[in-house]
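Hello K.,

You asked for the raw outputs rather than the summary table, so here they are, unedited. I folded two proteins back to back in the same session to keep the settings identical. This is the first:
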Amino acid sequence: MKLILTVLLLIFNLITSFAQSNSFAGDYTRSLSDTEKKHIIEYKLTLNQDGTFEFHSYSKMQGGIPPENNKYGKGKWSSKDNLITFSSDKKEDLNEKYTLDFNNSTARFVTKNPRDKSDKVVQTKLQFLESGIFWMKRIDVFKI
């Protein structure tokens, strides 16, 4: 009886851990601009089911040098509890196009607690806590 109960608990934990990682996968975005659209900053992060990710940052600044800028990053992600850790292999993931190194980057997955029955709206997001990319710290990207 104890063996059956132990096996069932183990299976339940495995199913829960797989379901949790699948909820992280998807597209996340953030767009910042002024009212006259002279300055635009857009971020797009895609977390794939297979544990890989792609990131694109676009900025358009009137009077900036250069006026438009695109930056890309890719690599692998993993989750533990509500923290997502990003890594980039310098040989495989970084090249002329993909220049952003996401090593040492960590983000928190924020969503409404399922036990919260209030009408409060909490938009699902990733909040970057740490990153080797200085401008990524404290950036929030929202799930589409």
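The second followed immediately with the same parameters:
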Amino acid sequence: MTTAPKQLHLAAHFPGVNNTTVWADPRSRSQIDFSSFEHLARTAERGLFDFFFLAEGLRLREHNGLIHDLDVAGHPEPLTVLAALAAVTDRLGLAATVNATFNEPYELARRLATLDHLSAGRAGWNVVASSDAFTGENFRRGGCLNRAGLPQALGSARTGGNPLTRAAESVATARGLWDSWTPDGTPRRFAHRGAHFRVEGEFTVPRPPQGHPVVIQAGDSPEGREFAASAADIIFARHGTLEAGRTFYADVKARLAKYGREPDELKIMPGVGFVLGDSDAEAQEKASEIRRQQISPQNAMLALEQVWGQDLSSYDPDGPLPESDPVPDAALVQGRVRTGDPLAVAARWRALSREKGLSIRQTVIEATGRRSFVGSPRTVAAEMAEYVATEAADGFVLVPHLTPGGLDDFVDEVVPLLQERGVFRTAYTGSTLRSHLGLAKPVWKG
């Protein structure tokens, strides 16, 4: 008996304010004009993707006390953009990052339920939590939450608690609000009293078509993995190799049982780049040029200063790495997520630089960036299928390097090969995001 190949899930990420987009390419267009969002979303729907994904930016990033002028492109509010895209797409899921630290669960639940109704069941929420006092300065509450659960203050305002516990309570509260309307359309009073929120009253929006909009969690820490296992439908992961993907996949899936969940109830979808060429060699050459464009000398120095935590403007990006150690608590670069211990990162970069004789810029190019599939369309299709078949991922969130046309070649050249392999749909069989993902509608908890 022949077993059908495991199906692969695909999503399209519209690049936010970052150095992913190659702005020097004449094909790069606005990140603000609605036509750009519409182009990428329509392309994703033409390719039968599961969903379209928008990130959230709550403050412009700064470098040495000044707004970072290499990536100031603007960042519209994502749920508003998705509501507009609901009118120009029919089946494509519509997901956005919305910060649980700086938004209240009642309003989040209301906005997401509205999007789910407007789109006939295609809404998704990427839940993130922030411990960033820099971003918190943009909010009237004026505080932030740190990872250790200790209160931090901005001015006289104080808020305490771990950001992930607040996010988990925010999700649970939103789900309770969505379930406060019966399936036949009867509202009921709702009351929640927890460590972070007290919500009491009546919800204004009937239960969403999906029951609950799809919940996505982005994070690789042990706490993030546990949160995803307990509460998420998708985990937006980041790992660089096939083996690392298998290790991550096995770890996260093994956590589900303690919450009474089956492995298929959580989809693991790492964010990846891709570069296509007529041959593997041509694609590799293109990929090298794209990385040089993404990591300009200025961006290389920004990445270096983010790790070292000090002004390194006297260094040559084509010269060697600093001999001094990083200053872990410095705030030279504001608004960028720091990943890993700076001392450990610096040690890895130095080892890589010594081993391969790399300059600062060359080291940053090689040491940073997401996993990318590089090769001919047939090579890329085969590698993606292998990741899914060998349980390194359930699918991928594609991050193109061109806005908004960067997905066109993938849809035209790789999707047909995935379909030929029998690992990707040839037509939408359902109308909701949950149906695309193979996720059941949550049972109403009256």
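Residues 147-160 have pLDDT under 50 and may be disordered.

Happy to rerun anything if the numbers look odd on your end.

Regards,
P.
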